[in-house]
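pinning this so it doesn't scroll away 📌
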Amino acid sequence: MSNVAINWVWQSVSTIALTPSARLVILRLADRANKENICWPGVESIALDCGISEISARKGLKELAQKKLIRIERRQDGKKRDVTNKYLLLITGGNKIPPGSQNSNTMRGKNFIPNHHINPHKENDEKSAVKKADALKNIELLKNILM
């Protein structure tokens, strides 16, 4: 799990107009992302984790790619068989405003202060497990709000 990715979703992506399915998908991808902000879950896993259909998961992924929030890279094994796609979260850094942001004034300039402290140091497994559980609770809360 990447704390940077989770914070990016809650702070920046939340200002972008997205369908409920796309919101759930980006939260799940952020939760699964490694420190390079890359993950490779299957569409079936994304759908199951988010409590949505595979079609909705695919539409959410397409929407996120169109809004330039993720890049999808097709992967194949040595025998040219398709395997799960690789998803790169296109996290904006510094003073950049996320594409499609509706609240750009609060994200601009040197005075931007994030709401949450991002710890760049690796945390121990116990703290990571607690944060992952908190992220899953946030996903459940968001699902309840959106449904």
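📌 and the second one:
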Amino acid sequence: MKKTINTLFIWISFNFTFTLNAQTLIKVGQNMGTIQNTSILELESNNRGLLLPRLNNTEATALITKAKTNNASGLLIFNTDCKCLQVFDASTTTGRWVTFWNTIGNSGTGTPSPTIGTTYNADVIFRVNNIERLKLTTTGEADFNNQVVRKYSAKVQTISTLNYTITPNDNGSILLIDTAESHNLTIPANLPSGFTCTVIQKGLGPLTFLGEAGITLNQRGNSRTTNGQFATVHLLQMNSSNILLYGDFE
């Protein structure tokens, strides 16, 4: 058998411990004088890659029984039908191929249903052009550029301190203002278009709505002060400078 020595180099290093156990380290490719001693096989090249076994769906399915019998968890192939890497999982009853997520679409990713996400308590952030566009929070909310979408019910927030400035995070929320004294509610200029929330005077103190510089408050009548306990006011950002207020004013 002909061997091309200049294209394949194998360096085997034997490391004997005091108990005469041998550890073999194998390197294939370039820089044969150095080897990463935490691996049993190291491949190094700046113009070649590792070519895995290429199987179609039928061939991969036919391999499952043998892989399960041999408890071959970690067996790796390239599936030519889904154009994706698959790794074998022998921990299930019959064994299965687990598919790495593919950017052009996924199928046959195993049972139970395909899952993407974390296994610890942290937000999942999606970026476009390295700019955060979507955050799935640990509380089950979808945050689109500080515009929070919640499932089924609104977030209810009780505010007991005097004078509150609305924030983008209040989008879609119900604010219960529970104070005994008069309370100023300030609407800032940084709310996103379409922002909406509901404000309820829960306490005895009346609420007065104020706009920051550049913000125009629009409502029927001249009053921007609530009409007593449990008065309700709805707020809608129509554009960058105009806020619509409607509800129980004096």
